[in-house]
Amino acid sequence: MSFSFKKFTVDDSRCGMKVGTDGVLVGAWCGMTGDTMPRNVLDIGAGSGLISLMAAQRFPEAKVTGIEIAPDACADARNNIDKSPWHDRVTIIEGDIMDVAQRPEGRWDLIVSNPPFFSETLHAPDAARATARHGETFDVTQLISLATQLLTPNGSLCFIAPSTRDGEIDFLAELARLHTTAVTRVYSKTGSRTPIRTLRRLSMTASPCVSDDLVIRLSDGGYSADYVSLTKDFYLHL
């Protein structure tokens, strides 16, 4: 299936993790959190290339590298990149991020990820989707652990995870000696008491943490003004 954004199109027909709100949220948010313009960006678990493309649009001077372990997803990502305006600045690597982390030249100013995070016993029936959703080869724990190896001294990691894992992620960040410098709690609709996702920026250097809330939909089903403002540069019909 193909999704048309303002400046690019994403075909995710072969990709286990389909285009969804989580990817759009973190792709848009990582450029709105006070990050300085990065020279190089790493998208871990690139899937169909959505976040890589959003990063290329958001940061016009940056080189973007997407790493994806699934061959079918890589095929989609490369096809989407080739058809985009930024095919000369975005590279998709098929491989394991654990191998990339061993390369001495691999350091990035900004890492962005929509990592696998579900830990329920009942897995998705499709093998590719199950791997993408449940982190059978990589998850948010490894993402945080690897960040200190992959980031430049002033670099940042931006990612999205279920809010139910906030306490665990706070502990993992402290263990990795990373500093939480931005947090946005995401609510599904107006009136919701419990956030469903947390957008988070972890940085190598300390600075005051910026914290806020984001509601996706209003009570009438329409998108909130904050959500529209966050995603308007990307969504075609907002």
Tertiary shape: globular
What is the H level of CATH, i.e. the homologous superfamily?
Vaccinia Virus protein VP39
For the report, how would you describe the main beta sheet? 8 strands, mixed
User: Which CATH top level class fits?
Assistant: Alpha Beta
Would you tell me the structural class of the helices and strands? alpha/beta
Number of helices, counting only DSSP H or I runs of 4 residues or more: 8
What is the CATH fold-level name? Answer: Rossmann fold
CA radius of gyration is 17 Å
Average of pLDDT:
87
Helical fraction equals 25-40%
Low-confidence stretches: 118-136
Order of helices and strands: EEHEHEHEHEHHEHEEEH
Total count of domains:
1
The N- to C-terminal Cα distance equals 20 Å
Q: β content, as a range?
A: 25-35%
Which CATH-level-2 architecture?
3-Layer(aba) Sandwich
Label this structure with key terms:
two-stranded antiparallel ribbon; 8 helices; Rossmann fold; single chain; eight-stranded mixed sheet; 238 residues; alpha/beta
Structural features, described:
- There is one protein chain.
- With 238 residues, this protein is an alpha/beta fold.
- It has one domain: Vaccinia Virus protein VP39 (Rossmann fold, 3-Layer(aba) Sandwich), CATH 3.40.50.
- It is 29% helix and 28% strand.
- The chain is built from eight helices and ten strands.
- The chain has helices at residues 21-29, 50-58, 71-82, 97-100, 127-134, 140-150, 166-175, 225-231, and strands spanning 2-4, 9-11, 40-44, 63-68, 90-94, 108-113, 151-162, 179-189, 197-203, 210-217.
- The strands form two sheets. It has an eight-stranded mixed β-sheet, with helices on both faces. It has a two-stranded antiparallel ribbon with strand order 1-2.
- 41% of the residues are buried.
